[in-house]
Amino acid sequence: xxxxxxxxxxxxxxxxxxxxxxxxxxxxxxxxxxxxxxxxxxxxxxxxxxxxxxxxxxxxxxxxxxxxxxxxxxxxxxxxxxxxxxxxxxxxxxxxxxxxxxxxxxxx
Length: 108
Prior knowledge:
Order of helices and strands: EEEEEEEH
Strand order of the largest sheet: 4-6-3-2-1-7-5
CATH class: Mainly Beta
Shape: globular
Low-confidence stretches: none
Helix content: 10-25%
Number of helices: 1
Distance between the termini: 34 Å
CATH architecture: Roll
Number of strands: 7
């Protein structure tokens, strides 16, 4: 299956110790390349962190989240699309634009 920029998908996300993992939502910010890899940002419900942007129902084109969730825009990573369990939502173009600005501000 092909996933697009703005898709929120579930993946088996490893903890930083790389010994454990759990299914977590992530936001695709760069679509799959020829190797089937996509660049993503973590989504969390833990608001006790820095560099978070709240996901509101108005930010979603499809679906809603049952708990308050945030895009952690300072942590990007590459995943292979084969580890994606399923697509659960799509975000608006406006949210993607805001995330891009925040991400660039953090990096530079």
